[in-house]
Amino acid sequence: MGRSHMNAMILKLRHGAHLSHSDEERLRALASERRIVAAHEDIIREGERPENIYLVLDGYACRYTILDSGVRSIMAYLLPGDICDLHVALLGFIDHSIGALTRCEVAEIPPQAIDDLGADHPAIIRALWWSTLVDEAILRRWLVSMGRRRADQHLAHFFCELYMRMDSVERVRECSIQFPLTQEVLADTIGISAVHVNRVLQQLREMRLIGLYGKTLTIHDFDRLAEFAGFSSHYLHLKDRMRSEALPPKRDT
After folding, report:
1. Of 27, 178, 220, 230, whose CB neighbour count within 10 A is largest?
2. DSSP 8-state symbol, 95
3. pTM of the model
4. Does domain 150-246 have CATH number 3.30.200.20?
């Protein structure tokens, strides 16, 4: 398994617990079964019986559901290092779909392998619980954005969150992240039309808060964007290193 891919999970879980060398080796062994999922294909479909836990090693995936009208609603993003539904085996069927927005590399982990960690790797168990709780915190923040933020603030908040999450697994380069999401995908994410998304993106560009160049998102001034969005990173429960080392510097405007 590629070292950079495996590091995504380890880098993320280090925010939740102190992992020993033995813990990290065990995590690598957990994710030995992997496969490639093509862009726009489902990793698991709504109504299917889940047999394994999925770990995203590379690419962008999402949780989504299709409404009776045929409209897609995206409920969460799964980024490198993210684990899909740690206790999904307790369910008889999955109540939403998980789809690959881009080409993804995923690992399939049998639920028993998590149960077998037991007393030998308590730090991993702690880190996995931390990850689950952060997922719930992100969902709560999305509900607030959906119900109370203007579309421009909502999208700005999403960009801040995405940047911080990608930075936590060292996927930020020169104040930029890979951003392969179309305006249609963003529309399905924040619940507005693609035309409205286009207008909001233009507004954020004109304010010099972001830059979109091809499939790259650049945040010119994180503090200004966060202030505009009403974003605070505390719900992501990341270590202080994020603010001190990784966020982009302010720029004169």
Report:
1. 27
2. S
3. 0.90
4. no
Q: What is the pLDDT of residue 64?
A: 98
Domain ranges of the chain: 3-134, 150-246
Splitting the chain (253 residues) into consecutive groups of 10 residues, what average pLDDT does each group show? 65 94 93 92 92 93 96 97 82 90 94 85 94 96 95 98 96 95 97 97 96 94 97 89 45 42
List the structure tokens of 132: 């689950």
Best CA proximity match to 12, nearest among 138, 165, 174: 165
Amino acid at 85: D
CA atoms of 98 and 85, how far apart (whole Å):
10
CATH superfamily, domain 3-134, is Jelly Rolls (2.60.120.10)
Longest CA–CA span in the chain (Å) reads 55
Q: What is the pLDDT of residue 6?
A: 55
